[in-house]
Hints:
Layout: E1 40-47, E2 53-59, H1 65-77, E3 84-85, E4 94-99, E5 103-108, H2 117-131, E6 139-144, E7 147-148, E8 150-151, E9 154-155, E10 159-160, E11 164-165, E12 175-186, E13 191-202, H3 207-216, E14 237-243, E15 246-251, H4 267-281, E16 289-294, E17 301-302, E18 306-307, H5 322-331
Parallel strand pairs: 5-6, 11-13, 15-16
Antiparallel strand pairs: 1-2, 1-3, 4-5, 6-7, 6-10, 8-9, 12-13, 14-15, 17-18
Amino acid sequence: MKRKSNLYIILLAFLLAFSLYGCSSAPDDMADEQIPADGIYQIYYTDLEGTSLVRRDYQAKSEDFEGLLAEILEAFQNPTGSDVRSALPEQVKINSTVIGINEIAVDFNAEYLSLDTITELLLRGALVKTLVTLKGVDAVRFTVDSQNLVIGDEEIGPMTNDTFIVPVGKGINSYRNALVTLYFPVEDGSMTAKESRTVHYSSNVNKEKMVIEEMLKGPQGPQSDQMLPVAVDGTLVQDVSVNNGYCIVDFSSEMNSAPPGEVIANPETVLYAFTNAIIDSCPEDKLTGVRFRIEGSSDLRFRDQVNLDQVFTRNADVIYNPVVKLEESEGE
């Protein structure tokens, strides 16, 4: 599998506080993401200090999609409230937008590249989370003078609402970029291959839980068509804890059902895929093993085959060299 070299982990610190305003009388501690009423869209701004995101409801007038997009972008750049400001700095301009299939590409002028780290990440988070509230928009792509956005050595691809993970409710939170290492079953389901993925997440979110949730989303990289999912849709992470070098993961009952498909991954391989991803992505916690539960219990056999009442340790034997294996299949 071809992967970019020189990918990096950026540790950022900035404040994210989501204040909820608008037509409804919903409490401030409600969940961060909501389904807006007809004609009402959520637009993200920053506070006056430029250190927090503030969400506002916006009543749109346009009915066609292009008109709605233009109206939302205008409101994004020119907030009406005196206690918020646009996440788009004055020197940065939007050159154009291109509407694709389930995706919007936003092209900026070259001044975008001069933004400091915090301002840049706030802008990305605010605009992505604003535009994905539009019906049919699942992802947003940033370009600068028609070139794909590159931060450091990493090309930033399409970003979804899930790219920016934030905690429920309001508060002051440290916000980070992390490059995580995920593993997904391949070929006959007995081995796994690596996929690297950059995730923006709050320090209020347990990093191990973030990694597991990324695994549950399934493969998303360039070779995703050669990889198998590890769980059915709707599987939830009910609890994750770290104690004495062990990570304990509790899944919802859906985890015990194998995803549909012509090839089904070996249940033991699935558990080692999670184990290797957790241990490799969280080296700072010096984990030595992972224990799994389903609905709070480990007294069962995972997908009728593997005894869950045991500690799973990192297993390099289920990881093959993605460059050798997957590139060989490309050249056939």
